[in-house]
Specification:
Chain A is an alpha+beta fold. Helices cover 28% and strands 36% of the residues of chain A. The longest helix of chain A has 15 residues. The structure holds a DNA duplex.
DNA sequence: CAGTGGTCTAGACCACCGA
DNA sequence: CGGTGGTCTAGACCACTGG
């Protein structure tokens, strides 16, 4: 019944959001208490509480037990950046994805790698290097080191039909990831593999995925700056 | 009381998450129904429902009214990337932030700018260019065009004491943002302002903020690749 | 102390899905 | 049809904050 057919808690959320967007409530301002909103909307407290709790989870409000709820000090744009499997991403653009495996081998971890993977120096780890193409144009070089404990059969995978990202998702359920995004020049080898000049800036994403107790893999993804950009959109 | 002192709904969440991380539940598998979990934990359905609803909101589960709950098909790592106000970010690292205004003027929008700001060509818009320093080292060049409708007093702001990001947050409450992140070479002017070589790759973030009906501003943020990287962490 | 949010309960009605 | 999730209620107890 009533208004717009939205659930009551969504209507409360919309009401508060509208006040914030319109500027009637500014960062730091107190938001009406649950009791007040309960009265105003004629709802039970649980319903109002759900609305407020969700807005807090979304980062719009800051709640403090005992003192009240205020509009969050939003000096950040927090946005969801999807770091996706390259295969799916290319397909979704309606393009053709292909890849070429350059290296697939076992190496001994040096000090730095052992550190990030949480292994002892000299432990044998898998190493793969491949190039991904979108409609035949190189858009990503993927240089990955994999913890054998997380994916023992990594070397047997047919990477013509699956990507490391896909395979690792399957055999090492993800629990945590860390990444860093930076701009850098490719190494000579990377430039050659991508078919670009060594002076072309690239977007380099270093990603470390953790599955349960193991660090499953560490990857360096190099994107030619001219051909790739990360995009995002944020609403609320 | 009991277990780990965590709220009951958090314990249910942890239980389900553990099953997923351990591999006992794989993508596509059915998760026990609310009724089953209610029995198993001796909780009311509302509490179990909260746990499951939150897990679904986090993207771990997919719920379908009538048929049940399954582990989400997860071929994506969706991670929160915070694009923050540079001033706060530097302070939080315990460093000193300063900035220098290079340009603060009114310009007529060309076709491209008018398009992104949603204005007619030739409309007067504000334009600012400034460099931000961390402990005296240039880390960001901020080139911004502002819609006068969103911030009429932009030219009067004292940018020695506030940043455009801060000011715009204040006078044009944010409702939506779009951004793109890429690697590129700086223009000659940008390189000079940042005190780097023109051949040094930079991280370039193009950000467009929307406040209510207006596109409030469009900014180009240039970070020297050697001195700055975006970092993120994702858990669950 | 009174007011706040954090959590929980034991019911309830509904829309939906699959058999 | 029975089982599922989506929503809502009217209470409740607690921990915390502020004056």
């Amino acid at each position: 019944m009533s208004s717009t057919d939205l659930p009551a808690y969504e209507q409360v959320k919309a009401f508060v959001k509208a006040q914030i967007h319109s500027g009637a409530l500014r960062p730091g301002d107190a938001v009406p208490s649950e009791a007040a909103l309960q009265q105003q909307f004629g709802l039970s407290r649980m319903t109002v509480n759900r609305a407020m709790t969700e807005l807090a989870a979304e980062g719009l409000l800051t709640r403090m037990r005992g003192s009240g709820t205020v509009v969050a000090q939003w000096h950040r744009i927090s946005s969801t950046l999807a770091v996706r499997d390259i295969h799916e991403e290319v397909l979704e653009r309606g393009h053709r994805h292909s890849s070429k495996v350059l290296t697939l081998e076992v190496v001994k971890a040096d000090a730095a790698l052992a550190q990030t993977l949480g292994l002892r120096r000299g432990t044998r780890v898998f190493h793969s290097v491949m190039v991904h193409y979108e409609n035949g144009i190189a858009i990503q070089l993927e240089d990955r080191h994999v913890n054998p404990a997380a994916a023992p059969d990594y070397l047997q995978v047919d990477f013509a039909h699956t990507t490391p990202t896909q395979y690792l998702f399957q055999c090492a359920p993800l629990s945590e990831a860390r990444y860093s995004i930076e701009a850098a020049l490719p190494t000579a080898m990377e430039a050659a593999a991508l078919g670009i000049q060594g002076s072309q800036p690239c977007l380099v994403i270093t990603r470390c995925t953790i599955s349960g107790a193991h660090v499953a893999s560490q990857g360096r993804l190099v994107y030619p700056g001219m051909r790739y950009s990360l995009q995002g959109n944020f609403q609320l």
